[in-house]
């Protein structure tokens, strides 16, 4: 991607990755507790090419925090009723309330990307969206939502490897769709749509942050680190905790009822 500052580095070992991720997870827990007590509303948008690694980044962010605070929104195709609504309407209902972090795995920017490129909306509808969305996001921010937008970029070579892996690995085949294959074919159409989207919707109140994610481990760490740097949370204070003494049995006996124990295969 033009203007990127990606630096070639050797693949990160899993042990090193887990060590860094553990430290970032502790910070995400601090962020979670601060969000709960402060009532802050945070909305994080993840967009990018197919196979750019959005799901892996989101999983890395959420695997050690509470789903009651960190909510992931990945909407299916719109229903016929939703198609008749104002385009962004079905997304607005998922915006965070006080003390919530909402993560969009793809968002209202579908209109500027996949819908536009694949012909699911007209060019006029796409242009109308691109002109209006900065004002809508300004209204979100003015209402107290801290809005962060990330675009994940991946090279042609990595996209090919990842799509081929989905074809070859039975554990990943569910990730492969006809749309993936069509979007793979239309790389430069997506590039043009991405460039115009970033140009028209990168604003002072809701800028786009671009992450090169060819190396998934480094990409996840860099994105989480940047995300934490954008939120003025305060470190979590760890209170002194001592486990209480466990009560005595006071006549309790194990039940004689036969139980259905699962087989021990491992």
TrEMBL record:
What InterPro entries does the record tag this protein with? P-loop_NTPase, Polyphosphate_phosphotransfera, PPK2-related, PPK2_PA0141
Name of this protein: ADP/GDP-polyphosphate phosphotransferase
Q: So what EC number does this one have?
A: 2.7.4.-
Q: In which family does this protein belong, per the annotation?
A: Belongs to the polyphosphate kinase 2 (PPK2) family. Class I subfamily.
Q: Where is the Polyphosphate kinase-2-related domain?
A: 13-236
Select a single GO molecular function from the record's annotations and give it: polyphosphate kinase activity
The entry describes its oligomerization and partners as: Homotetramer.
Q: Which UniProt keywords apply?
A: Kinase, Transferase
Which top-rank group of organisms is this from? Bacteria
Task: Give the signal peptide, or none.
Answer: none
Function comment = Uses inorganic polyphosphate (polyP) as a donor to convert GDP to GTP or ADP to ATP.
PANTHER family to which the protein is assigned, alphabetical: ADP-POLYPHOSPHATE PHOSPHOTRANSFERASE (PTHR34383:SF1), POLYPHOSPHATE:AMP PHOSPHOTRANSFERASE-RELATED (PTHR34383)
At the highest ranks, the source species' classification is:
Bacteria, Bacillati, Actinomycetota, Actinomycetes, Mycobacteriales
């Amino acid at each position: 991607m033009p203007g990127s500052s990606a630096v070639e580095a050797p693949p990160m070992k899993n042990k090193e990755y887990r060590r860094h991720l553990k430290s970032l997870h502790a910070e995400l827990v601090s962020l979670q507790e601060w969000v709960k007590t402060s009532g802050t509303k945070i909305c994080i948008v993840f967009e990018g090419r197919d196979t750019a690694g959005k799901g892996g980044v989101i999983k890395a962010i959420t695997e050690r925090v509470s789903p009651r605070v960190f909510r992931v929104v990945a909407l299916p195709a719109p229903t016929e009723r939703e198609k008749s609504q104002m385009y962004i309407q079905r997304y607005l209902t998922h915006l965070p309330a006080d003390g919530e972090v909402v993560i969009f795995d793809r968002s209202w920017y579908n209109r500027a990307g996949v819908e536009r490129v694949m012909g699911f909306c007209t060019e006029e509808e796409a242009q109308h969206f691109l002109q209006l969305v900065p004002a809508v996001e300004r209204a979100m921010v003015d209402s107290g939502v801290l809005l962060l937008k990330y675009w994940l970029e991946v090279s042609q070579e990595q996209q090919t490897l990842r799509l081929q892996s989905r074809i070859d690995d039975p554990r990943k085949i569910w990730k492969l769709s006809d749309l993936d294959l069509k979007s793979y074919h239309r790389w430069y159409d997506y590039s043009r749509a991405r460039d115009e989207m970033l140009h028209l919707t990168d604003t002072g109140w809701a800028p786009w942050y671009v992450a090169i994610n060819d190396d998934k481990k480094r990409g996840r760490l860099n994105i989480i680190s940047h995300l934490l740097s954008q939120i003025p949370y305060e470190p979590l204070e760890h209170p002194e905790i001592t486990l209480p003494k466990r009560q005595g049995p006071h006549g309790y006996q194990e039940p004689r009822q036969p139980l259905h124990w699962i087989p021990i295969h491992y």
